[in-house]
UniProtKB/TrEMBL annotation:
<dbReference type="InterPro" id="IPR007110">
    <property type="entry name" value="Ig-like_dom"/>
</dbReference>
<comment type="similarity">
    <text>Belongs to the immunoglobulin superfamily. MyBP family.</text>
</comment>
<keyword id="KW-0393">Immunoglobulin domain</keyword>
<keyword id="KW-0130">Cell adhesion</keyword>
<feature type="domain" description="Fibronectin type-III">
    <location>
        <begin position="314"/>
        <end position="407"/>
    </location>
</feature>
<dbReference type="InterPro" id="IPR003961">
    <property type="entry name" value="FN3_dom"/>
</dbReference>
<feature type="region of interest" description="Disordered">
    <location>
        <begin position="1"/>
        <end position="126"/>
    </location>
</feature>
<dbReference type="Pfam" id="PF00041">
    <property type="entry name" value="fn3"/>
</dbReference>
<keyword id="KW-0514">Muscle protein</keyword>
<dbReference type="Pfam" id="PF07679">
    <property type="entry name" value="I-set"/>
</dbReference>
<comment type="function">
    <text>Binds to myosin; probably involved in interaction with thick myofilaments in the A-band.</text>
</comment>
<feature type="domain" description="Fibronectin type-III">
    <location>
        <begin position="118"/>
        <end position="213"/>
    </location>
</feature>
<dbReference type="InterPro" id="IPR013098">
    <property type="entry name" value="Ig_I-set"/>
</dbReference>
<feature type="domain" description="Ig-like">
    <location>
        <begin position="427"/>
        <end position="511"/>
    </location>
</feature>
<dbReference type="GO" id="GO:0007155">
    <property type="term" value="P:cell adhesion"/>
</dbReference>
<dbReference type="InterPro" id="IPR003599">
    <property type="entry name" value="Ig_sub"/>
</dbReference>
<keyword id="KW-0677">Repeat</keyword>
Length: 520
């Protein structure tokens, strides 16, 4: 046992003698196949030698015959073992150098496909006078073994020595680095770790200044700027965007990841807002502008979409396709320049040769063809088409090279031939005479209705005797209604009265009885 203790003490002494060397630790750190050395560089190495001493028993087994000398040979073994393979066994990096590359030679192929990818969207959530809070998103690829956790490393600005903050990997995507010195600038990076190795680190672009942020930066975008901001060519662009943050944040404007041309775009920043101003807008000013408000590593971003428009050009290839009757068909193609805005429609105008004035025939036509109707016969027409966008009508119009002449068509009126109907009809009474009783001295009337064509001749008779021109009787016929007035009748006027209708086709008659009573 004393001999074995001496062996361990002798095995540790060369390791301590090699610690002062700066080159050996740097070479040894990436060599161990386990990822424990990568996950926590500040962790004590006591746990690492333990697995390394398990392969060392080979020299100890060689040393086991030494104890056969029992005590007397125990002091002899240390000098024999010092030059022997014991120091070489403990200085495993030297002899294990050749096998070490052989192990990575078989492993690099697997880690290349199974090591996780870099964490995403690394950002600073909060900064205080002695801590920094980070957030990020999980990597897209975690590898076949699965993700063991993340390792956060820091490096002071101006230095190249990265130090792991956490001793063991953790699975949360939020971490707070504490016990930092106020006023320091540190670089931060995060690695994803699995059993197959560590990912390429995700690093913050800018160093983080350790000082208290009283209020995180935030852009308060006005509602009308959350959609596309439209202006005409030549108009002024004046936008004021408020923000918040303490201490006063840094304001950065970019367009296409490039800084703005301050000779054309004026930017004025205050403690609470930033003003974007262009005196005369041009179409080249259209695009997406990015506003960044930053305090140390914490920042907020906003996108402004500016669209500078102008009237479109005239339509192209206007043609007079066809003319028929009172109608004309037109076709054209969209303008070459839409004025940096969508074409909403077309306005079609017509002009007759006599007056020479233009009148709108069609508005907001969304197609590139149309038919103009209700043209006047005998007139000659020309047509022009304007394009229209959000800025208005085009300054110029496309005019037809040909004219449309609405010709007169010769028509003759041919009345419809209606077959003549045979209206001939013999007399026929539709309403007969009715018996009547009257009082002496009071005039009375007899009525009947008759039809027939030609109009029949009406003959009145009393007791089968024709009543001729007698002032006592008044006979009338109107619209087929026959009437006989008997003026102041007396008992002698009583009898049978007959109305007879005669025409070339025949005759008809009706009778009635008249009674005359005396006065009581």
């Amino acid at each position: 046992q004393t001999g074995r203790r001496d062996l361990w003490s002798e095995a540790e002494t060369p390791k301590q003698s090699r610690d002062p060397r700066a080159e050996t630790p740097k070479h040894c750190l990436p060599q161990p196949p386990s990822f424990a050395a990568m996950t926590g560089k500040t962790a004590p190495p006591a746990t690492d030698p333990a697995p390394k001493k398990k392969p060392v028993p080979t020299p100890k087994e060689e040393a086991t015959p030494a104890p056969a000398a029992e005590g007397s040979t125990a002091p002899e073994h240390p000098p024999a073992d010092e030059p022997a393979p014991v120091p070489t066994a403990e200085a495993a990096p030297a002899p294990e150098g050749p096998p070490a590359p052989s192990a990575p030679e078989s492993k690099p192929e697997k880690p290349s496909a199974e090591t996780p990818s870099s964490p995403l969207s690394l950002a600073v959530e909060e900064v205080s006078e002695n801590s920094v809070t980070l957030t990020w998103k999980a990597p897209e690829q975690t590898g076949r073994p699965g993700l063991d956790g993340y390792v956060v490393e820091i490096c002071k600005d101006g230095s190249t020595d990265w130090t792991a903050v956490n001793k063991e990997p953790f699975l949360s995507t939020r971490y707070t680095i504490r016990d930092l010195s106020s006023g320091d600038k540190i670089h931060v990076r995060v690695k994803a770790v699995s059993t197959s190795g560590a990912s390429v680190p995700a690093t913050l672009e800018q160093p983080v200044l350790i000082r208290e942020i009283l209020q995180l930066p935030r852009i308060r975008m006005p509602r009308h700027l959350r959609q596309t901001y439209v202006r005409r060519v030549g108009d002024a662009v004046n936008m004021m965007i408020p923000f918040q943050g303490k201490p006063q944040p840094e304001v950065i404007w970019t367009k296409g990841d490039q800084p703005l041309d301050t000779s054309h775009v004026n930017i004025r920043n205050t403690e609470k807002d930033t003003i974007f101003y262009i005196r005369k807008a041009q179409r080249s000013d259209s695009g997406k502008y990015e506003l960044t408000v930053r305090i140390n590593g914490a920042e907020d971003k906003a996108i402004l979409d500016i669209q500078v428009i102008e009237p479109p050009g005239p339509p192209q290839n206007l043609k007079l396709v066809d003319v028929w009757g009172f109608n004309v068909a037109l076709e054209w193609t969209p303008p070459l320049d839409n004025g940096n805005s969508e074409i909403k429609g077309y306005t079609v105008q017509k002009s007759d040769k006599k007056s020479g004035k233009w009148f709108t025939a069609l508005e907001r036509c969304t197609r590139t063809s149309c038919t103009i109707s209700d043209l006047i016969i005998g007139n000659t027409y020309s047509f022009q088409v304007f394009a229209e966008n959000a800025c208005g009508l085009s300054e110029k119009a496309a005019v037809t090279s040909a004219v449309a002449h609405i010709e007169k068509t010769k028509t003759t009126y041919q009345p419809e031939k209606i077959p003549q109907r045979d209206m001939m009809e013999p007399p026929k009474f539709t309403q007969p005479l009715t018996d009547r009783t009257t009082t002496r001295g009071y005039s009375t009337h007899l009525f009947c209705c008759v039809r027939g064509f030609p109009q029949p001749k009406i003959i009145w008779m009393k007791n089968q005797m024709e009543i001729r021109e007698d002032p006592k009787y008044i006979a009338m016929t109107e619209q087929g209604v026959c009437s006989l007035e008997i003026r102041k009748p007396n008992p002698f006027d009583a009898g049978i009265y007959t109305c007879k209708a005669v025409n070339p086709l025949g005759e008809a008659s009706v009778d009635c009885k008249l009674d005359v009573k005396g006065k009581t």
